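Narrative of accomplishments. A recurring question from our advisory board has been how the design workflow behaves on a single, concrete structure rather than in aggregate. To address it, we present the structure tokens for one chain from the evaluation set, followed by the sequence designed for it. No filtering or post-editing was applied between the two.
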């Protein structure tokens, strides 16, 4: 294994010709230090060169990134990751293409970041490569994009706030997608519709079980979610409003729970910690309709002929590699709010609130997450030494990651609520 100091590059962006990869390359060109040694990688040298020419126009005085063409064979990927300290991977669907990327990085002590939301694949990667990555000092963090950085960082911020300000554990965090304006890319649609072509319903169910990704068994207690919420999907929460089932809640909850376990479980956020995530709706009826519509959608996806029809229709709308226009993307926005309850024996336990907000293209935001997390790993030697290695989570990057995101224009704030 080559020393990280002797490697040719600081980072390699794999999948730079895709919709998300190109936006990530643009952010790196615009915002990261000019002394960064980096390269773009993918299967076509010609297409990669075109991407370099296009994104370099945003900062023409900067030295252009190198081009490293590769196949996705394990042999070629091993050679690729040995050249760099860190890989940013935007090649999806991850369950189809990216397992050998994770394996190569785990084997060679190369740090790795991606923006998947595929919980069954993340579960599989943890089972196969966590111990190997830890042994070789490779920090591997999947789901560091919109899934699941905002959720994970808000939960971490609130639990840290209670610990530092009040010396209290956290009993429950309830988060809600307060605003979401965006269009999915072709790659996102292909991933969502193709997951059940690769994994069985049993495998998906196992990976989606409560605390499935946590190395420590979670609390047994119930948070007292109303029975009506379990049936109709609707929940009322002070300071958040009327909430319902969120399609992205599953992966986010799993990552937050894994963070709890990795940080020590009962010794981190507290022994009774729970995290729930929803989306805000106008009223109870709208919430119930969305809840049952999502349930019906899952049934449709589980029936192969119907799933194949949807896949064909989605490909006609947005093929992988395509996404919203620059004008449409600029109108996008995302806001996640969260309310936390302290774990204390009181009829009126202390509460805290947190907010994550970004105005602009959400796939560009994905590039921000990747690039700024990369800079934490590349620059903060004390943190990387503490983390050691393994399949970790976004919140394991802690305050340094939050500080860099704030400097990039993202609102991420938390506060104790008045008694």
């Amino acid at each position: 294994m080559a020393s990280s100091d002797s490697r040719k590059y600081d980072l390699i962006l794999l999948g730079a010709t895709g919709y998300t990869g190109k936006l990530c390359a643009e952010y790196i060109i615009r915002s990261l230090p000019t002394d960064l040694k980096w390269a773009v990688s993918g299967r076509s040298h010609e297409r990669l060169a075109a991407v370099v020419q296009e994104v370099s126009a945003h900062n023409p005085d900067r030295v252009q990134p190198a081009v490293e063409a590769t196949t996705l064979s394990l042999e070629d990927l091993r050679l690729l990751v040995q050249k760099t300290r860190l890989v940013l991977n935007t090649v999806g669907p991850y369950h189809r293409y990216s397992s050998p990327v994770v394996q190569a990085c785990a084997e060679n002590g190369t740090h790795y970041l991606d923006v998947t939301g595929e919980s069954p694949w993340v579960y599989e990667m943890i089972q196969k490569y966590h111990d190997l990555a830890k042994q070789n000092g490779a920090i591997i963090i999947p789901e560091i994009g919109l899934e699941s950085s905002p959720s994970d960082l808000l939960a971490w911020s609130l639990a840290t706030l209670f610990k530092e300000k009040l010396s209290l554990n956290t009993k429950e965090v309830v988060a809600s997608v307060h605003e979401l304006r965006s269009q999915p890319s072709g790659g996102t649609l292909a991933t969502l519709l193709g997951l059940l072509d690769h994994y069985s319903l049993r495998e998906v169910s196992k990976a989606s079980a409560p605390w499935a990704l946590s190395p420590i068994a979670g609390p047994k207690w119930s948070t007292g979610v109303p029975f009506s919420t379990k049936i109709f999907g609707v929940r009322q929460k002070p300071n958040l409003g009327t909430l319902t089932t969120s399609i992205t809640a599953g992966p986010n909850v799993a990552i937050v729970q894994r963070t709890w376990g990795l940080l020590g479980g009962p010794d981190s956020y507290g022994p009774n910690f729970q995290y729930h995530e929803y989306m805000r709706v106008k009223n109870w009826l709208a919430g119930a309709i969305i809840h049952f519509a999502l349930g019906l959608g899952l049934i449709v996806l589980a029936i192969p002929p119907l799933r194949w029809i949807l896949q064909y229709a989605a490909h006609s709308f947005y093929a992988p590699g395509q996404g919203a226009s620059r004008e449409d993307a600029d109108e996008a926005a995302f806001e996640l709010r969260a309310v936390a309850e302290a774990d204390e024996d009181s009829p009126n336990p202390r509460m805290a609130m947190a907010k994550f907000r970004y105005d602009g293209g959400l796939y560009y935001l994905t590039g921000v997450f990747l690039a700024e997390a990369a800079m934490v790993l590349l620059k903060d030697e004390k943190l990387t030494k503490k983390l050691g290695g393994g399949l970790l989570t976004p919140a394991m990057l802690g305050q340094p990651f939050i500080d860099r995101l704030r400097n990039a224009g993202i609102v991420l704030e938390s506060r104790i609520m008045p008694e």
